[in-house]
Specification:
- By secondary structure, the chain is mainly β.
- It has one helix and 18 strands.
- It has one helix spanning about 1-10, and strands spanning about 15, 20-30, 35-40, 45-50, 60-65, 70-75, 80-90, 90-100, 105-115, 115-125, 130-135, 140-150, 155-160, 165, 165-170, 180-185, 190-195, 200-205.
- The chain has an 18-stranded antiparallel sheet that branches.
- Strand 4 (about 45-50) and strand 5 form a beta hairpin.
């Protein structure tokens, strides 16, 4: 009977002689509800930490590893459904983060490096098909940009260069024929832009060099 008693009576929020956090730590809100609970070793978080809303519902779980520098994280809606998941490294978002609606369907994914968008972001329609893909370099739009109709066919194709639209841009009708096409340079429309009806017949021509 002694061991269970010792387990439940374990002290919390302890500092060692050098002032480092050791063992289980908790923190509460002003209303008395638990804010977080986790374990430290030599001032560094270890294993699972649980974070809570002021109203008491679970807000997030983080599983720390690599000597407390990285944490696999799960964030929840108030109803308990998974809202987002991803990795923190040195308290900054890293690698792939996924976001979900309350029906547990993926609505967005983002790629990070050292807290900055780096790679692609993908946005999805409510029913799950891909809507948009953007490319990023250190938090700046850079590279291919595409949008899709719900059936998966291409809706728009364009590109960014260091945060500015650059190169050809083409929009399509739902039947696959070109709606309009033209070119950007330094985020400005240049040259001839052509617009077409759903049968592919030229409707309007605008020359932005004039």
């Amino acid at each position: 009977m002694l061991l269970p008693f010792l387990a439940f009576s374990q002290s919390v929020n302890e500092l060692d002689a050098s002032g480092k956090k050791q063992g289980i730590w908790t923190k509460t809100y002003k209303n008395g509800n638990l804010r977080y609970r986790g374990q430290f070793k030599d001032d560094k978080p270890q294993g699972l930490f649980y974070y809570y809303q002021t109203s008491g519902e679970l807000l997030a779980e983080k599983k720390f590893f690599h000597n407390g520098t990285a944490a696999a994280s799960h964030i929840f809606y108030k109803g308990g459904e998974l809202q987002a998941s991803g990795l923190y490294v040195n308290e900054l978002k890293d690698s792939t983060w996924n976001y979900y609606n309350r029906d547990s369907l993926l609505i967005m994914s983002e790629e990070y490096k050292e807290g900055k968008l780096n790679g692609t972001t993908k946005t999805y329609y409510y029913e799950g098909s891909i809507y948009e893909i953007k490319s990023w370099n250190k938090d700046v739009l850079d590279g291919k940009w595409e949008q899709f109709f719900m059936d998966g066919t291409l809706k728009m194709q364009s590109a960014y260069n260091q945060g500015k639209r650059d190169g050809k841009q083409t929009y399509y009708h739902p039947n696959g024929k070109v709606y309009y096409k033209g070119k950007y340079t330094d985020d400005l429309k240049v040259g001839v832009w052509e617009y077409f009806n759903e049968e592919g017949v030229t409707d309007t021509i605008i020359n932005y060099n004039e």
